[in-house]
Structure formats: structure tokens, C-alpha cells
Amino acid sequence: MTKPVETYKEFTFEAAHELPPYSGLHGHSFKVRIALTGEPDPKFGWSANLYEVERKIEEIHKTLDHGYLNQVEGLSVPSLENIAAWIWHKLHADLPAMSEVAVSRGPDGQAEGCVYRG
Ligand SMILES: Nc1nc2c(c(=O)[nH]1)N=C([C@H](O)[C@H](O)COP(=O)(O)OP(=O)(O)OP(=O)(O)O)CN2
Ligand SMILES: [Zn+2]
């Protein structure tokens, strides 16, 4: 029996948000990691073809990048956790192999983030 393989795709976006009463309007560079887990394709070894994953992510990226997150439909409280859940719900029908969505902000070594697993 073959072992499941995890494949991932990362993307970044720049966006503004506010989280009253904790923070006023400000911006971040966010990093997103989409993981997909499943049985490897017998020829290519992947659990998901990254070309297809990239196509699905494109629309989400367009919505979030250079956006004001509080005004995105379904994202009126844009905490890290709510952003990750929002991305999950946007993608899971098209990417059934998706196993987690991780969202982080801040530089390596000082980043803060969360992982959402549906
Ligand atoms: N589990 C979480 N806790 C908190 C979140 C969150 O998204 N998940 N968010 C906040 C507020 O946004 C808080 O005001 C954080 O401010 P922010 O500028 O977004 O982030 P930093 O703390 O990294 O800001 P710096 O001052 O630039 O370090 C609170 N808790
Ligand atoms: Zn912030």
C-alpha cells in the first residue's frame, strides 16, 4: 500500500485590516500555505496537480491582495483564524484533497499565524 503524500502551495498577499477593539486600520504582508494530502498519483507521485491548485487560488488572491479585508464578503472580522477559515470554505469544494490552510503574518522568526483544518 502506498503512503499518502502532502503537497503544498504558498502565496502571499498584502492587505489592510482592523480588529476593534484590538487594532485600528493597518496593513500586513500575509502568507498562506495550502496543503493537500492524498494517495500519490501512480505516475507523477503527487496528490494534487499544482497547476490546478494555482488556478483555484488565483481568484482568492485577486480578492484579498491589496484589499481592505473587513470589506470582503464573509470576512468582516479578519483575524488570522477567520481568514484561514474563509479561504478553506472558498476552496474546499474545488480542492477535495485540501487538508489544511495556514495563514501567517510577519517576518520569519517573528511570524504569528494559525492552521485551519476544516
Ligand atoms: N489568535 C489571534 N489573536 C489575535 C489576533 C488574531 O488574528 N488571532 N489579532 C489581534 C489583533 O489584530 C491585534 O491588534 C494584533 O495586531 P496586528 O497589528 O494585526 O499584529 P501585531 O501584534 O503583529 O502587530 P505589531 O505591533 O506590528 O507587532 C489580537 N489577537
Ligand atoms: Zn493586523
TrEMBL record:
> Sorted alphabetically, which keywords does the UniProt record give?
Lyase, Metal-binding, Queuosine biosynthesis, Zinc
Signal peptide from the UniProt entry:
none
Per UniProt, the cofactor note for this protein states: Binds 1 zinc ion per subunit.
State the pathway, as annotated in the record.
Answer: Purine metabolism; 7-cyano-7-deazaguanine biosynthesis
Q: Give the required cofactors.
A: Zn(2+)
Q: What reaction does this enzyme carry out catalytically?
A: 7,8-dihydroneopterin 3'-triphosphate + H2O = 6-carboxy-5,6,7,8-tetrahydropterin + triphosphate + acetaldehyde + 2 H(+)
Q: What is its EC number?
A: 4.-.-.-
Question: Which GO molecular function annotation, any one, does this entry have?
Answer: 6-carboxytetrahydropterin synthase activity
Q: Which Pfam families match?
A: PTPS
User: Per its database record, what is this protein's job?
Assistant: Catalyzes the conversion of 7,8-dihydroneopterin triphosphate (H2NTP) to 6-carboxy-5,6,7,8-tetrahydropterin (CPH4) and acetaldehyde.
Give the family, as the similarity comment puts it.
Answer: Belongs to the PTPS family. QueD subfamily.
Protein's name according to its UniProt entry: 6-carboxy-5,6,7,8-tetrahydropterin synthase
Report the source organism. Answer: Nitratireductor thuwali
